[in-house]
Amino acid sequence: MLKSALRPYVIMNMAMSADGKISTHRREQITLGSKNDRYMMDVLRSRVDAVIIGAGTLRVDGHPLIIRDPKIRRLREKRRLTLHPVNVLLSRSLGIPIRRPFFKHPDTQKILYTTKTARENERKRFAKYAEVIVLPRRGSFLGRVLEDLHGRGFERILVEGGGALNFSFFKGGYVNEIYLTVTPRIIGGAHAPTVVDGAGFLKAFHPTLALISAKKVGQEVFLRYRVRNN
Ligand SMILES: NC(=O)c1ccc[n+]([C@@H]2O[C@H](COP(=O)([O-])OP(=O)(O)OC[C@H]3O[C@@H](n4cnc5c(N)ncnc54)[C@H](OP(=O)(O)O)[C@@H]3O)[C@@H](O)[C@H]2O)c1
Fold first, then answer.
1. Nearest-CA neighbor of 180 among 141, 227, 138, 140?
2. Which of 64, 99, 118, 150 yields a CA-CA distance of 20 to 30 A from 58?
3. What is the mean pLDDT of residues 206-222?
């Protein structure tokens, strides 16, 4: 079922260990990829209007979603785009720390989607640092987020995790492409987060992928897939 009508094109990018984990069972902030992976991240960020993360990722990481490589930033400037893609954070509850570099970066435009589950005083507090959009509690939160982003003229967005948010994106049928960097590590742990967590899919239905490219660079493999169901 095609779901792209009123939504931006959705690309997902994740780095994982060779056993499919995106962090340890303590959900530590861990840099899995090499400088080549970091470069790839910059390239993908440069091609989109916005980058989205879930509250869980902000809780453990909290860095702004910026393009670090000045050459890549200059390419965006030449195309008359903002220096960095818009930074989008999803948190229905706003149970997130405000003292994160994500909120402080001077050169990023920030949008925080939430619901009335979040207390009003919290919503006001975050409004000092980001545009806070309050969506209804009922219905598809993610569907509404994507419609709103589309309404702003955003054509391409990048989802950067974590596993819970990624599952919601796949469950909604919203993902068009996924980039995976397989890094040479084994993390293990039944409770360590993976690329797609949530409730998971079943044999009867799960998204299937078509491999677009697989490239070995140093000790890493860079995979790019198209999601077939979309
Ligand atoms: N290796 C990588 O490439 C990579 C990238 C990113 C993250 N990570 C790792 O991933 C871990 C965090 O992942 P996570 O699964 O715990 O958290 P997550 O997916 O980043 O965030 C989940 C939270 O996002 C909010 N949310 C809002 N709308 C949602 C929706 N439609 N579906 C799901 N969540 C929604 C919820 O918080 P509210 O209750 O506030 O609504 C939810 O608890 C960390 O260990 C981080 O280091 C790794």
1. 227
2. 150
3. 98
